[in-house]
Write a structure and sequence with these properties.
Distance between the termini: 53 Å
Largest sheet: 5 strands, antiparallel
Number of strands: 9
Strand order of the largest sheet: 7-2-4-3-9
Low-confidence stretches: none
Structural class: alpha+beta
Number of helices: 11
Strand content: 5-15%
Length: about 300
């Protein structure tokens, strides 16, 4: 078996039966999903609220004339534009498979999570019963010797256990986990774009906690300054990053001044219960003061001249 099973886990003696275990996993993974989904939702809602071009863009039908649907469409279009490798690793995807090994050493229940975000695996490792963990690390990879703290016999046992579950010599399984029972997160960002915003206790999620007014203002300033500077298009990641850093630094310097501190900020995002508002009923797009944009542009040119 030539494998890199970095996320392999073993169930401890404190873990319940598979039915109860799946219930516990389902509950916690849905919570993690919501924790990951809300910032994505907030960011895309802010993109609609703060960008006139996004508000006016034709998205194919009257349904997308409403805030929540337009924000959802932005997210889906963004995902569709990624290459196959990125799309496969959906940032909200989670599934897990279960297996069991019986031999002269006893019975070992193994699990393998497929998580696109480390938060899912961390939440699994934190699950407990009566103060005792349900999972322990049981990773294995053929490319290295056993890590420090793991006996050579233990490392060999992990190899044999995972090899058994993978059925590496069976042409039908083709050395995968596809034949094992499992559970996958049924939630999708497409289906819960508005529902995920409602707390389990019936209270609303504050979008502004996940997409701060200050960050939205900085993005608006960045766009306005870049437009005002009228800079020529440049090639090369390094040069683009240098330009962006100088603009961000100029914005930071200005916001530290008295005028910057007194500058008006964008309005708060709509309440989570009001995401079905029509685009035409949103407040005007936030526009940074012209004086602020001009001063930041000057600061940028000063830094560009000194090579800072």
């Amino acid at each position: 078996m030539g494998a890199k099973l970095y996320d392999g886990l073993r169930l401890t003696a404190h873990a319940p039966d598979l039915f109860e275990l799946t219930r516990a996993i389902s509950k916690r993974m849905r919570e993690v999903f919501r924790e990951l989904a809300v910032p994505i939702i907030a960011r895309n809602v802010a993109r609609v609220v703060d960008d006139a071009e996004v508000r006016e863009r034709d998205m194919g039908g009257p349904l997308h004339n409403y805030l929540v649907h337009r924000a959802r469409k932005l997210w889906l279009d963004e995902q569709a534009g990624l290459d196959d490798r990125m799309t496969f690793h959906d940032p909200l995807r989670f599934s897990i498979v279960f297996g069991e090994v019986d031999d002269e050493w006893g019975t070992r229940r193994l699990v393998y999570p497929f998580a696109a975000n480390r938060a899912y695996t961390d939440a699994l490792m934190a699950l407990e019963a009566n103060g005792q963990p349900l999972f322990v690390n049981y990773h294995y990879q053929t490319q290295t010797d056993q890590p420090g703290g793991i006996h050579v016999k233990e490392w060999k046992r992990r190899h044999d256990d995972w090899n058994h579950l993978l059925d590496a010599d069976d042409r039908e399984t083709d050395g995968t986990f596809g034949h094992l029972p499992g559970w996958h997160l049924p939630d999708s960002i497409d289906g819960v774009f508005d529902g995920a915003l409602l707390g389990y206790d019936g209270t609303d999620v504050d979008l502004d906690l996940h997409c701060a007014v200050e960050d939205r203002m900085r993005r608006a300033l960045n766009r306005a300054v870049l437009l005002a500077l009228g800079l020529d298009e440049i090639n090369g990641i390094s040069r683009v990053l240098t330009r962006n850093r100088r603009i961000e630094r100029a914005i930071e310097l200005y916001l530290r001044t008295a005028d910057g501190a007194a500058m008006p900020r964008p309005a708060l995002l709509p309440d989570a219960r009001d995401l079905d508002i029509a685009i035409s009923r949103l407040p005007p797009v936030y526009e940074p003061p012209a004086g602020a944009v001009a001063r930041i542009s000057e600061l940028y040119r000063e830094r560009a001249l000194t090579g800072d």
